[in-house]
């Protein structure tokens, strides 16, 4: 199972792309600005897009992706999300004012995109992989996702979240966990802001990791631009018992 980090930053700037993760070549977790670095041929292979929540940095390039390959789509691209997320996409993005509604184009009977509601703890089987949705705690309703292949190798993605129990309970129910991509958006000095915006800091993440029975490779995402070094140093100090990587756009991981 190949995991390609198209985007993982908490902001924009040279080399920074917002959240989007490509699983193998056909599944996207979120559709932030990292999608824009895909070649057209790569975009055409994407068949399933799992959205964690409705914030712009996680959905911004979904409209451009579908528009760019519109004429080459033979079967609808399947977009999954919580009811609140799907509702936000319909009302505020694909509403014929901000962007055309591709769930009705070229016509309602044969659209190029289809919306699918997914609930926490629900699993979707795609070829030889299973994608499980997990509730997390963010300022809007959000999900994390657990991807498991036929060999039992497992990659988990937290989405945006702060302290919670649901994510850790779901991860502890797994027989094993190889890799966990989890956010730490602010340094410890911004803990009050982290609580308000519902993002982890190194200290709050370290406390929650005590709930986890597995020892996965940690991929840290969503670091705010300009604060990356500070956050990284704090993470390595409080999580020195873990294999830990502060990832960047363009990284790839083979979960084998």
UniProtKB/TrEMBL annotation:
InterPro entries: Metallo-B-lactamas (IPR001279), Pdiesterase2 (IPR000396), RibonucZ/Hydroxyglut_hydro (IPR036866)
Domain Metallo-beta-lactamase: 17-190
Gene Ontology BP annotations: cAMP catabolic process; negative regulation of glucose mediated signaling pathway
Molecular function terms, GO-annotated: 3',5'-cyclic-AMP phosphodiesterase activity; 3',5'-cyclic-GMP phosphodiesterase activity
CDD domains per record: class_II_PDE_MBL-fold
Gene3D superfamilies referenced in this protein's UniProt entry, alphabetically: Ribonuclease Z/Hydroxyacylglutathione hydrolase-like
Pfam families: Lactamase_B_2
Family matches, as SUPFAM superfamilies: Metallo-hydrolase/oxidoreductase
Domain of life of the organism encoding this protein: Bacteria
Protein name, entry field: 3',5'-cyclic-nucleotide phosphodiesterase
């Amino acid at each position: 199972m190949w995991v390609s980090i198209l985007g993982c930053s908490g902001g924009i700037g040279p080399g920074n792309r917002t959240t989007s993760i490509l699983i193998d070549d056909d599944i996207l977790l979120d559709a932030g600005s990292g999608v824009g670095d895909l070649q057209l041929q790569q975009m055409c292979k994407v068949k399933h897009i799992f959205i964690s929540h409705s914030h712009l940095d996680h959905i911004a390039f979904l409209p451009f992706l579908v528009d760019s390959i519109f004429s080459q789509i033979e079967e609808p691209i399947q977009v999954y999300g919580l009811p609140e997320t799907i509702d936000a996409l319909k009302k505020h993005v694909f509403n014929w004012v901000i962007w055309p509604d591709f769930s009705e184009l070229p016509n309602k009977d044969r659209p190029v995109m289809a919306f699918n509601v997914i609930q926490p703890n629900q699993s979707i089987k795609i070829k030889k992989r299973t994608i499980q949705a997990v509730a997390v705690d963010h300022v809007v309703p959000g999900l994390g996702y657990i991807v498991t292949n036929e060999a039992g190798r497992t990659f988990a993605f937290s989405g945006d979240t702060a302290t919670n129990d649901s994510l850790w309970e779901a991860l502890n129910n797994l027989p094993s966990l190889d890799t966990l991509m989890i956010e730490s958006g602010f340094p410890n000095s911004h803990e009050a802001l982290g609580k308000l915006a519902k993002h982890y800091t190194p200290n709050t993440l370290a406390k929650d990791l005590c709930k986890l029975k597995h020892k996965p490779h940690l991929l840290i995402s969503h670091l705010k631009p300009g604060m990356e070094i500070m956050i990284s140093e704090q993470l390595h100090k409080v999580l020195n018992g873990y294999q830990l990587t502060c990832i960047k756009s363009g990284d790839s991981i083979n979960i084998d």
